[in-house]
Amino acid sequence: MAVVRDLRVLLHFRNFRRLLAVRLLSQGADGVYQIALAAYVVFSPEKQTSAATVASAMAVLLLPYSVVGPFAGVLLDRWRRRQVLLHGNLLRALMASATAVLILSHVPDWLFYVSALCVTAVNRFVLAGLSAALPRVVDDERLVMANSLSPTAGTLAATAGGGLAFLVRLVVADSDAAVVLLGAVLYLCAALASLRLAPELLGPEAESGQPRLTTAVAGTARSLAAGVRHLAAPARREAGWALLTMTIMRFCYGVLLVMLLMLCRYTFSSNPDDGLRLLGLALGTSAAGFFAAAVVTPWAAGRLGPGRWIIVCAASAAVLEPPLGLPFAVGPMLVATFVLGLTTQGAKIATDTIVQSFVDDGFRGRIFSVYDVLFNIAFVGAAAVAAVILPPDGRSAMLVLSVAVVYGLTAGAMARLGADSPPAEATESV
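RE: above sequence
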């Protein structure tokens, strides 16, 4: 199997193995923590959840990253990225433990959201740091392959963490606090795993000519503008279009995720626990789509080029999403989660590769943080749109068809303006 062969090749890089271990533990903890949040906010029997409630929760948890994200980029281009992984995961372990205490104390929802926000805010530094560090642990020839397998493995780890969270609830304790504490333990393990990487290994380069930290923080807007200008240069046009296309696809995915949450909560089952289990199954089929993307993308991007592969992913989602979504039945919806997992992750792998290939090392932290901010704004915007359109039971043919149109327009725009590069040489041998 090609993906197994590719993984064996990458695992020959010792530091890649170590960075991958940090990613798997960190994102596994994310999966545990996110399932705990979903169970507490959406599937608690005593809560009457609506699409507006879900949108409000996403806004509280994600919108502040519009402020945190730019600072993350500036700091990632100056701080040692290994230290970001170490201290970030230690801090999340501490704050996740505090979240568990708040759940047991039955505090007001706003205080719970503040605690959860702190945990997920640090996540922006860790994930952006992992992406910016990846070119430092593999050679240029294997970068596309690493981008295919490493983030996908992290997503699968997050899904496995979610499954572990369900297992804890079913076997150990029917308690969201116990699940959150499990996440705290995994964050601690991720921090310890990062100690196996040399402090200077992941960069950034000391001689990159960056100003002092205080000057950089004060001039964050100017620094980000420089990053955007770097991305907007003619030689990096494809990277800019790929990032914009991926943001729109993230918006579509977010809209459909809110719809799935409401369907699992009210349409597919009248019992909140059964609805939560069904959501777990849907996340599992989506993870299978992520894995399929890791298998297919190196081959497809090698022959089409990463930009054209993004077009194929968006167009496939446009064609397949309506017939799978409009029945509003469990079987077709599970198939839809697989398809959207494949197309979304396939486009993301290609986008990561394009951005990393075209962006200079001294700008990668900033660009990936802008990438992250765009993702979060798109997700919050998607939740807001879903809150306006969705009825209480989550069934909306207009929403399904509208998302398909957006996918189609996105594929067309990318085809016209952003994907004229030749196939990626790095994938030709994959």
